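Protocol step 4 of 5: obtain the predicted structure for the target chain.
Materials: sequence only (see below). No template structures provided, no constraints applied. The aim of this step is simply to have a reference model before the mutagenesis design in step 5. Sequence pasted as it appears in the construct record:
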Amino acid sequence: MQDNKSRNSGELTDIADAPREGRLLCLDPGTKKIGVAVSDETQMVARPVELVKRTSWKNLVEKISELIGRYDAAALVVGLPLAFEGGETEMSEEARDMARKFSLSLDIPVYLHDERLSTYTARGHLWKTGKDGEELRERLDAEAAAVILSDFIETRNMLVKRSG
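Step 4 output (structure tokens):
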């Protein structure tokens, strides 16, 4: 953990400025648990990693800091749960607050990314591989984080390509 020595200002960073190499860590925040995914160094593939149980903020920051170190992550992406039509929800506010706090606590850039339909897409991926019941529930949030991260990378790449 960074003991309030972060270089970050608490402002979230523009997706177009995201690092184009190095691993990215992604969180799919929920009220009781958080799905975690990571990309490879070339940011070609995102894979589910694990579930983190939400307890205290201190424990969460320590666990995410440990994962950032373990994977040598260059940036953190936090899924932003918007309503289907694009409006804010109670969980949107929670995700924004979480991302802001991570930005203040960590020494890497933090991004928010729309996660609409990520759980639905993740469930479809798991069904196709024969997962159902308890196994599906255990893997769903981390798989959703991988879906969010894949979409983040694709969206960032399109923005960079358009801008030159």
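Step 4 remarks: The longest helix spans residues 133-163. Confidence is low (pLDDT under 50) at residues 1-10.
Proceed to step 5.
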